[in-house]
Write a structure and sequence with these properties.
329 residues; alpha+beta; nine-stranded antiparallel sheet; three-stranded antiparallel sheet; 29% helix; globular; binds adenosine monophosphate; binds magnesium ion
Length: 329
């Protein structure tokens, strides 16, 4: 789906009845360039809670979007080379986290990649294969190290730096929605922001884990390759089939290697990361695609901050996982 469809107005609500006589309420809206669905048990306050969740997504989209010229991030990108610029706490928190993950992944997840992303334009009307000269220029001094943070002010050391939070923002927004739902004492919920999933508690009105299908690469959204059984966690997939264009028989997809300036090429087609932090799951799924299988496994083994599991799907359709017990037989 091309991102220029993002202005579609779409709200969809539905109720589901369970055999135990209980009900859930689900709402879907087209926001942050994708379909966002939140499902919670029906109660007197369920509609108000969903209102608050979707308001929050809208507010955060207006802060983090690199595609909306009026967002706080776009405005920061315009001026931060010229002068240190004060940002909101919401944007500051996410830039701090993005820099931290960039450092840990040695720039495989690279939030300063905005200029390169815009140059390729993949998924937008202007998608194209840029000239080598332009690519070389776009990766000059391209590093998260050139995003400077001083208190609540952000500055860039060179003009080529533009922040793009597209590989972490959906995850971070998911974490903030989970926090809101917990504050409202919602005990079980499923959140799906364009495939960025979090399942809270146990599956509705049961003691069972949730089941999450991992989509078959290049096939339609409802064909599942593998099914995971999980709860109280996020599952985020990055895949090279999600957005791409073809030129002269070559596919150019949207996950870029900031060191070469080109879409990543290795034997991975998708990586799904399971982690209680959706922001980490999101950023690491992107980073692992860039790093490749061996480096990612090394990273997971040595990463003590969060428990991370992953499922890697390869171009020959085989897969490997760090934790077989997550898979439903
Ligand atoms: P995701 O779908 O989470 O893997 O994020 C992909 C999006 O993140 C792209 O559409 C770009 O906006 C941005 N992006 C592409 N390559 C990278 C990268 N190496 N590091 C960080 N963000 C990236
Ligand atoms: Mg990501």
């Amino acid at each position: 789906m091309k991102f220029f469809l993002k202005n579609i107005f779409f709200v969809f609500c539905c109720f589901t009845f369970f055999s135990c006589g209980k009900e859930t309420v689900s709402r879907t809206e087209f926001l942050i360039g994708t379909f966002c669905t939140i499902k919670i048990p029906k109660s007197k306050s369920a509609d108000f809670i969903l209102d608050e969740c979707f308001e929050k997504i809208k507010t955060l989209e207006y802060i983090f979007s690199a595609n909306d010229f009026n967002s706080e991030l776009s405005k920061l990108n315009e001026v931060a080379f010229k002068k240190p610029t004060e940002v909101s706490n919401e944007l500051l928190d996410l830039i701090i986290l993005a820099k931290k993950i960039a450092e840990k992944t040695d720039g495989a997840f690279e939030p300063a990649i905005g200029n390169l992303v815009k140059l390729w334009g993949i998924g937008f009307e202007n998608e194209n294969l840029p000239s080598e000269v332009k690519i070389k220029k776009a990766i000059e001094d391209l590093s998260y190290k050139n995003i400077l943070i001083d208190g609540n002010k952000i500055s860039f050391t060179n003009e080529n730096i533009k922040i793009d939070l597209g590989a972490i923002a959906k995850g971070h927004i998911t974490d903030l929605i989970v926090k809101l739902l917990k504050e409202k004492k919602v005990e079980s919920a499923s959140i799906n922001l364009g495939g960025n999933i979090y399942v809270l508690g146990k599956k509705f009105f049961t003691d069972d884990n949730w089941r999450i299908g991992l989509r078959k690469p290049y096939e339609d959204l409802n064909s599942y390759e593998l099914v995971l059984s999980v709860n109280n966690t996020s599952v985020v997939t990055s895949g090279i089939y999600e957005r791409y264009f073809e030129k002269d028989g070559t596919k150019y997809h949207h996950i870029l290697d900031s060191k070469t300036g080109y879409p990543v090429r290795n034997n991975l087609v998708s990586v799904s990361v399971v982690c209680e932090s959706s922001a980490y799951a999101d950023a690491l799924a992107t980073a692992f695609l860039v790093m490749g299988y061996e480096k990612s496994i090394h990273f997971i083994k040595n990463f003590s901050e969060k428990k991370i599991d992953a499922v890697f799907i390869f171009s020959d359709n085989s897969y490997k996982t760090t934790n077989k017990s997550l898979l439903v037989k």
